[in-house]
Amino acid sequence: MEPILSMEHVTKRYGTVPNQTDALNGITFQVMPGEFLGIMGSSGSGKSTLLNCLATVIQPSGGRIVVEGVELNTLKDKALAAYRGKTVGYLFQNFELLDHLTGRENILLPTTLHGVAAQESEKRLEHLAAYLEITEVLDKFPAQMSGGQRQRVAAARALILHPKMILADEPTGALDSQNAKNIMEKLAGLNEDEQATILMVTHDCTAASYCKRILFIQDGVIFHELRRGEASRRDFYERILKVMAQLGGGSSHVL
Question: Which pTM does this prediction carry?
Fold first, then answer.
């Protein structure tokens, strides 16, 4: 099986000499189809820069990022738009929903932009709304939803185009513990039931315990790697906590 993502000696530098900062310093790893990979590290470790390079928000200074056999820096115009719309789906910490659109309209917006037929769009919406338990808020505006509902609507929007890979940036960061648990159970379910490939940046050991593999980043390089294997989620959490303690971060409980 070929990896869906390969990052090869990726670097990212900000500023100029003598005030240059290396956010990424030769990151190399692969993600296989169907993986649920967590990226962890303390503030300033480079994890958000890594995700932004994958999202093509910023360009790396060096190295190669290859997704489904295509090097990202070769994508232009329509191919780049297709990558951003169909190859990857984005789940943000602060939801990024449009306030003047209903839940239904927010979710369907990508299908409108990318020319998915109305009947097919509605079929996908119905399936996702049932799975994510948001049917009752589809005709509400974001201001009328709870934080957990807004994040699940955002998840449906990220999934509506059937992306090859989901990029989740601190998806539980703006949620209380119960809603954080709910969204992580949904993401883990998508990974298990539909073999969704998920790459999640998080500082939260509880959220990370749902992953199958975790890469820990420090000073722009991979510091450590953990695989869950047959361990329980609680045992995996304890292992994660020990590594994060070395990095100066962590959390106090597992849900």
Answer: 0.87
